[in-house]
Amino acid sequence: MSGITESAGGGGDAGGLVDPFGRHVSYLRVSVTDRCDFRCVYCMSEDMTFLPKKDLLTLEELDRLCSAFVAKGVRKLRITGGEPLVRKNILWLMKALGRHLETGALDELTLTTNGSQLMKHAADLAACGVRRINVSLDTLDPDRFKAVTRWGDLATVMDGIAAAEKAGLAVKINAVALKGVNEDEIEDLIRFAHGRGADLTLIETMPMGDIDGDRTEQYLPLSIVRARLMDRFTLEDSPYRTGGPARYVTVKETGGRLGFITPLTHNFCESCNRVRLTCTGTLYMCLGQDDAADLRVPLRSSADDRVLMAAIDAAIARKPKGHDFVIDRRSRKPAVARHMSLTGG
Ligand code: SAM
Ligand code: SF4
Questions:
Q1: Percent of the chain residues past pLDDT 90, beyond the cut
Q2: Ligand with an atom nearest the CA of residue 29
Q3: 39 in ligand 2 pocket by Cβ < 6 Å?
Q4: Ligand 1, atom 26: closest residue by C-alpha
Q5: pLDDT value of residue 270
Q6: Can you give the pLDDT at residue 77?
Q7: Class of the 8-172+270-343 domain?
Q8: pLDDT tens-place string over residues 74-123
């Protein structure tokens, strides 16, 4: 593996990336692999076909691409997947990207993970400048955890969360609300997360990619969850925003923050500040649309970043106004054919 170079840009882009609707794109999410050591029922089918390894950008290429976005004014990078911590040598990329924190070009380098590899990597992630991570955890019951993730082990993830906290990382828990699976556990998840000083964010299932089951069976509107929680807790609207789809409340009884990501029941597009890059260099300007821009060809066509920068500008100029997710009982087809693991949520 080569050394870490100051590739892509330097200088910065004073105007930043602004789309046709005046939204500043300051947040890049990067899926570094489509592979995973779990097979969550809402995310993947059990026998997934993954991309051939040769189609993946190298870590050096991912560094160069991310650095181009940073030079263009992106202030926050989230590394995701598939499971980002199963990508070989991922720590090299984290360390490389950490240099933008040191120069002040980047405000935050963060990660979304299923937690399975955190015991091994938490301390190194902290050393790379990571301060906060999101860990996906849908249930606190070992058998249910196995049923939801198919291949996961709850105890390993719990140890991973503990290791992250020990390394000084702030942990946020993400849970997908699933009808008939964890809907009776939301209160326990709140108490678990808030009891250790972590935020909890609940996510509605999104119709992305074919899975083995029927999505309409899994879909649990968060409006219902919220109404039920209001019988047990006092939920106070919070002004806290991340520029993303989550809307937050403070739970008076626990003092903790609870987020709701409701793409199907609430339109969050007007404040969207993000774009998503896949591990093959495809840029999706919207999670809920199929339009995408290929950045691999411009990346590989020239060692000079100008071609790449122009391709990024052209892509941002195509960022759509919003998505139109529908979970449709009649068509039973996902609204978006690609799996969430390709773009990382
Ligand atoms: N493997 C890592 C993890 O699970 O955190 C990162 C990638 S995963 C695709 C990112 C997030 O997307 C997870 O919180 C997961 O629960 C969520 N997710 C996956 N498929 C989803 C779907 N169809 N609808 C809603 N959320 C989904
Ligand atoms: Fe893997 Fe994350 Fe998808 Fe679960 S949600 S299968 S952990 S990528």
A1: 74
A2: 1
A3: yes
A4: 205
A5: 81
A6: 98
A7: alpha beta
A8: 999 999 999 999 999 999 999 999 999 999 999 999 999 999 999 999 99
> What confidence score (pLDDT) does residue 211 get?
76
User: Ligand 1 test: best mutation among 32, 35, 38, 40, most atoms within 8 Å of CB?
Assistant: 40
Ligand 2 binding pocket includes 84 (Cβ within 6 Å)? no
DSSP collapsed to 3 states, the chain:
CCCCCCCCCCCCCCCCEECCCCCEECEEEEECCCCCCCCCCCCCCCCCCCCCHHHCCCHHHHHHHHHHHHHCCCCEEEEECCCHHHCCCHHHHHHHHHHHHHHCCCCEEEEEECCCCHHHHHHHHHHCCCCEEEEECCCCCHHHHHHHHCCCCHHHHHHHHHHHHHCCCEEEEEEECECCCCHHHHHHHHHHHHHCCCEEEEECCCCECCCCCCHHHHECCHHHHHHHHHHHCCEEECCCCCCCCCEEEEECCCCCEEEEECCCCCCCHHHCCEEEECCCCEEECCCCCCCEEECHHHHHHCCCHHHHHHHHHHHHCCCCCCCCCCCCCCCCCCCECCCHHHHCC
Whose CA is closest to atom 11 on ligand 1? 345
Atom of ligand 2 nearest to the CA of 340: 3
Q: Does the structure show a pLDDT above 90 at 262? A: no
Mutate to test the pocket of ligand 1, among 110, 149, 176, 182 (most ligand atoms within 8 A of CB): 176
Ligand number nearest CA of 40 is 2
